[in-house]
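Case study 2.
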Amino acid sequence: MRTIVITGASSGIGAAAAHALARHGAQVLLVARREEALNRLVADIKGEGGRAAAFVADLAETSQVEDLADRLLAAHPHIDVLINNAGRSIRRGIIDSLDRPHDFERTMALNYHAAVRLTLRLLPGMLARDDGHIINVSSQSTQMPMPRFSAYIASKSALEGFSRSIAAELAGSGIAVSIVNYPLVRTDMSAATKMYSRLPMMSAEAAADWLVQAVEKRPARVATRLGRAWHLSTVTAPGVTTELTGRFMNYMAKRLAR
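Prediction:
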Protein backbone atom coordinates (compact mmCIF):
# COMPACT_ATOMS: atom_id res chain seq x y z
CA MET A 1 0.00 0.00 0.00
CA ARG A 2 1.43 3.37 -1.04
CA THR A 3 1.33 6.38 1.25
CA ILE A 4 0.61 9.47 -0.85
CA VAL A 5 0.66 13.14 0.14
CA ILE A 6 -1.71 15.35 -1.88
CA THR A 7 -1.60 19.12 -1.44
CA GLY A 8 -4.53 21.32 -2.41
CA ALA A 9 -6.76 18.39 -1.51
CA SER A 10 -9.92 20.02 -0.18
CA SER A 11 -11.60 20.49 -3.58
CA GLY A 12 -11.20 20.16 -7.33
CA ILE A 13 -8.46 17.94 -8.72
CA GLY A 14 -6.99 17.25 -5.29
CA ALA A 15 -10.25 16.01 -3.77
CA ALA A 16 -11.11 13.89 -6.82
CA ALA A 17 -7.60 12.41 -6.82
CA ALA A 18 -7.86 11.63 -3.11
CA HIS A 19 -11.00 9.58 -3.72
CA ALA A 20 -9.55 7.85 -6.79
CA LEU A 21 -6.21 6.94 -5.20
CA ALA A 22 -7.88 5.74 -1.99
CA ARG A 23 -10.12 3.48 -4.09
CA HIS A 24 -6.94 2.06 -5.64
CA GLY A 25 -5.70 1.10 -2.18
CA ALA A 26 -3.47 4.05 -1.30
CA GLN A 27 -3.31 5.70 2.08
CA VAL A 28 -3.83 9.40 1.30
CA LEU A 29 -2.48 12.22 3.47
CA LEU A 30 -4.49 15.29 2.53
CA VAL A 31 -3.21 18.85 2.84
CA ALA A 32 -5.23 22.06 2.51
CA ARG A 33 -6.09 25.30 4.32
CA ARG A 34 -9.80 24.64 4.78
CA GLU A 35 -10.09 22.37 7.80
CA GLU A 36 -13.83 21.77 7.59
CA ALA A 37 -13.74 20.77 3.93
CA LEU A 38 -10.68 18.61 4.51
CA ASN A 39 -12.32 16.78 7.42
CA ARG A 40 -15.43 16.12 5.33
CA LEU A 41 -13.28 14.64 2.59
CA VAL A 42 -11.47 12.37 5.04
CA ALA A 43 -14.81 11.21 6.47
CA ASP A 44 -16.16 10.49 2.98
CA ILE A 45 -13.08 8.46 2.03
CA LYS A 46 -13.21 6.48 5.26
CA GLY A 47 -16.92 5.92 4.68
CA GLU A 48 -16.00 4.30 1.37
CA GLY A 49 -13.54 2.00 3.15
CA GLY A 50 -10.43 4.00 2.28
CA ARG A 51 -7.59 5.28 4.44
CA ALA A 52 -7.09 9.03 4.79
CA ALA A 53 -5.79 11.65 7.21
CA ALA A 54 -6.06 15.45 7.22
CA PHE A 55 -3.15 17.88 7.65
CA VAL A 56 -4.27 21.50 7.75
CA ALA A 57 -1.73 24.06 6.49
CA ASP A 58 -1.52 27.26 4.47
CA LEU A 59 1.32 26.44 2.10
CA ALA A 60 1.74 30.07 1.11
CA GLU A 61 3.30 30.58 4.55
CA THR A 62 6.87 29.25 4.78
CA SER A 63 6.67 28.44 8.49
CA GLN A 64 3.53 26.38 7.92
CA VAL A 65 5.22 24.36 5.16
CA GLU A 66 8.04 23.44 7.54
CA ASP A 67 5.58 22.60 10.32
CA LEU A 68 3.54 20.48 7.90
CA ALA A 69 6.63 18.51 6.89
CA ASP A 70 7.44 17.85 10.54
CA ARG A 71 3.90 16.60 11.22
CA LEU A 72 3.80 14.42 8.09
CA LEU A 73 7.10 12.72 8.85
CA ALA A 74 6.32 12.26 12.53
CA ALA A 75 3.05 10.50 11.70
CA HIS A 76 4.21 8.71 8.52
CA PRO A 77 8.00 8.31 8.18
CA HIS A 78 7.50 6.22 5.03
CA ILE A 79 5.98 8.44 2.33
CA ASP A 80 6.00 6.95 -1.16
CA VAL A 81 4.55 9.72 -3.32
CA LEU A 82 4.29 13.50 -3.04
CA ILE A 83 1.75 15.20 -5.32
CA ASN A 84 2.34 18.96 -5.36
CA ASN A 85 -1.12 19.97 -6.54
CA ALA A 86 -1.87 23.12 -4.52
CA GLY A 87 -1.87 26.19 -6.70
CA ARG A 88 -3.03 29.73 -7.28
CA SER A 89 -3.90 31.25 -10.65
CA ILE A 90 -4.10 34.94 -11.54
CA ARG A 91 -5.46 36.13 -14.88
CA ARG A 92 -4.29 39.69 -15.33
CA GLY A 93 -2.59 41.39 -18.27
CA ILE A 94 0.91 42.74 -17.80
CA ILE A 95 -0.31 46.29 -18.47
CA ASP A 96 -2.63 45.95 -15.48
CA SER A 97 0.13 44.41 -13.34
CA LEU A 98 2.74 47.17 -13.45
CA ASP A 99 1.97 48.22 -9.86
CA ARG A 100 1.23 44.69 -8.60
CA PRO A 101 4.53 42.86 -8.03
CA HIS A 102 2.84 41.13 -5.09
CA ASP A 103 0.78 39.10 -7.61
CA PHE A 104 3.99 37.48 -8.83
CA GLU A 105 5.37 37.01 -5.31
CA ARG A 106 2.30 35.34 -3.82
CA THR A 107 1.81 33.12 -6.85
CA MET A 108 5.43 32.01 -6.70
CA ALA A 109 5.16 31.42 -2.93
CA LEU A 110 2.46 28.77 -3.33
CA ASN A 111 3.03 27.34 -6.80
CA TYR A 112 6.81 27.08 -6.60
CA HIS A 113 8.43 27.73 -3.21
CA ALA A 114 5.96 25.60 -1.23
CA ALA A 115 6.35 22.66 -3.62
CA VAL A 116 10.14 22.93 -3.52
CA ARG A 117 10.27 23.13 0.29
CA LEU A 118 8.00 20.13 0.72
CA THR A 119 10.01 18.16 -1.83
CA LEU A 120 13.27 18.97 -0.04
CA ARG A 121 11.85 17.76 3.28
CA LEU A 122 10.34 14.49 1.99
CA LEU A 123 13.09 13.56 -0.45
CA PRO A 124 15.65 12.32 2.14
CA GLY A 125 13.35 9.46 3.19
CA MET A 126 12.90 8.45 -0.44
CA LEU A 127 16.66 8.59 -1.03
CA ALA A 128 17.27 6.37 2.00
CA ARG A 129 14.91 3.74 0.53
CA ASP A 130 16.01 4.21 -3.12
CA ASP A 131 12.35 4.56 -3.99
CA GLY A 132 9.88 7.42 -4.27
CA HIS A 133 7.92 9.61 -6.61
CA ILE A 134 7.44 13.37 -6.90
CA ILE A 135 4.49 14.50 -9.05
CA ASN A 136 4.31 18.21 -9.83
CA VAL A 137 1.03 19.49 -11.19
CA SER A 138 1.47 22.09 -13.92
CA SER A 139 -0.56 23.51 -16.77
CA GLN A 140 -0.86 23.23 -20.53
CA SER A 141 -0.34 27.00 -20.52
CA THR A 142 3.40 26.46 -19.92
CA GLN A 143 3.57 24.71 -23.29
CA MET A 144 2.36 27.69 -25.31
CA PRO A 145 2.75 31.50 -25.31
CA MET A 146 -0.36 32.34 -23.26
CA PRO A 147 -1.17 36.03 -22.66
CA ARG A 148 -2.55 37.46 -19.38
CA PHE A 149 -1.13 34.73 -17.15
CA SER A 150 2.47 35.88 -16.68
CA ALA A 151 2.48 35.42 -12.89
CA TYR A 152 0.90 31.96 -13.01
CA ILE A 153 2.89 30.64 -15.95
CA ALA A 154 6.16 31.95 -14.51
CA SER A 155 5.56 30.01 -11.29
CA LYS A 156 4.61 26.80 -13.07
CA SER A 157 7.53 27.12 -15.49
CA ALA A 158 9.86 27.43 -12.50
CA LEU A 159 8.34 24.28 -11.03
CA GLU A 160 8.86 22.44 -14.31
CA GLY A 161 12.49 23.55 -14.51
CA PHE A 162 13.05 22.32 -10.97
CA SER A 163 11.36 19.03 -11.86
CA ARG A 164 13.48 18.40 -14.96
CA SER A 165 16.72 19.21 -13.15
CA ILE A 166 16.14 16.91 -10.18
CA ALA A 167 14.80 14.18 -12.48
CA ALA A 168 18.11 14.22 -14.37
CA GLU A 169 20.10 14.27 -11.13
CA LEU A 170 18.11 11.38 -9.63
CA ALA A 171 18.24 9.20 -12.76
CA GLY A 172 18.86 5.60 -11.75
CA SER A 173 18.13 6.27 -8.08
CA GLY A 174 14.71 4.64 -8.00
CA ILE A 175 13.03 8.03 -7.52
CA ALA A 176 10.78 9.27 -10.33
CA VAL A 177 9.74 12.84 -11.07
CA SER A 178 6.61 13.51 -13.12
CA ILE A 179 5.13 16.71 -14.56
CA VAL A 180 1.39 16.82 -15.28
CA ASN A 181 0.33 19.50 -17.78
CA TYR A 182 -3.42 19.90 -17.40
CA PRO A 183 -5.62 21.70 -19.91
CA LEU A 184 -8.51 23.71 -18.48
CA VAL A 185 -10.16 21.71 -15.69
CA ARG A 186 -13.59 22.56 -14.26
CA THR A 187 -12.74 23.54 -10.69
CA ASP A 188 -13.33 26.43 -8.30
CA MET A 189 -10.09 28.00 -9.55
CA SER A 190 -11.14 28.01 -13.21
CA ALA A 191 -14.66 29.15 -12.25
CA ALA A 192 -13.17 32.43 -11.00
CA THR A 193 -12.70 33.43 -14.67
CA LYS A 194 -16.33 33.73 -15.79
CA MET A 195 -15.63 33.60 -19.52
CA TYR A 196 -14.19 30.09 -19.13
CA SER A 197 -17.69 28.75 -18.48
CA ARG A 198 -18.20 28.92 -22.26
CA LEU A 199 -15.17 26.75 -23.01
CA PRO A 200 -14.88 22.94 -22.97
CA MET A 201 -13.06 21.73 -19.88
CA MET A 202 -11.76 18.49 -18.42
CA SER A 203 -13.72 17.26 -15.39
CA ALA A 204 -11.98 16.98 -12.03
CA GLU A 205 -12.64 13.23 -12.12
CA ALA A 206 -10.88 12.85 -15.48
CA ALA A 207 -8.01 14.96 -14.14
CA ALA A 208 -7.81 12.63 -11.13
CA ASP A 209 -7.47 9.66 -13.48
CA TRP A 210 -4.33 11.31 -14.90
CA LEU A 211 -2.81 11.35 -11.41
CA VAL A 212 -3.74 7.70 -10.82
CA GLN A 213 -1.98 6.80 -14.09
CA ALA A 214 1.01 8.95 -13.12
CA VAL A 215 1.33 7.12 -9.79
CA GLU A 216 1.08 3.73 -11.48
CA LYS A 217 3.29 4.36 -14.55
CA ARG A 218 5.67 7.08 -13.26
CA PRO A 219 6.04 8.91 -16.62
CA ALA A 220 8.24 11.95 -17.05
CA ARG A 221 5.27 13.96 -18.32
CA VAL A 222 1.51 13.64 -18.79
CA ALA A 223 0.05 16.07 -21.33
CA THR A 224 -2.44 16.40 -24.16
CA ARG A 225 -1.46 15.96 -27.79
CA LEU A 226 -2.40 19.58 -28.37
CA GLY A 227 -0.10 20.76 -25.60
CA ARG A 228 2.81 18.66 -26.92
CA ALA A 229 2.28 19.91 -30.48
CA TRP A 230 2.03 23.54 -29.40
CA HIS A 231 5.19 23.16 -27.31
CA LEU A 232 7.05 21.69 -30.27
CA SER A 233 5.90 24.56 -32.47
CA THR A 234 6.99 27.10 -29.84
CA VAL A 235 10.45 25.53 -29.63
CA THR A 236 11.03 25.17 -33.36
CA ALA A 237 9.41 28.43 -34.52
CA PRO A 238 9.14 30.66 -31.46
CA GLY A 239 8.66 34.00 -33.22
CA VAL A 240 5.87 32.89 -35.55
CA THR A 241 4.16 30.72 -32.93
CA THR A 242 4.21 33.46 -30.29
CA GLU A 243 2.86 36.05 -32.72
CA LEU A 244 0.05 33.86 -34.04
CA THR A 245 -0.85 32.42 -30.64
CA GLY A 246 -0.97 35.87 -29.09
CA ARG A 247 -3.23 37.23 -31.82
CA PHE A 248 -5.53 34.20 -31.61
CA MET A 249 -5.76 34.25 -27.81
CA ASN A 250 -6.40 37.99 -27.70
CA TYR A 251 -9.13 37.61 -30.32
CA MET A 252 -10.77 34.78 -28.39
CA ALA A 253 -10.58 36.73 -25.14
CA LYS A 254 -12.43 39.64 -26.73
CA ARG A 255 -15.08 37.36 -28.18
CA LEU A 256 -15.62 35.54 -24.90
CA ALA A 257 -15.81 38.84 -23.01
CA ARG A 258 -18.57 39.98 -25.39
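Residues 51 and 244 are 49 Å apart (CA to CA).
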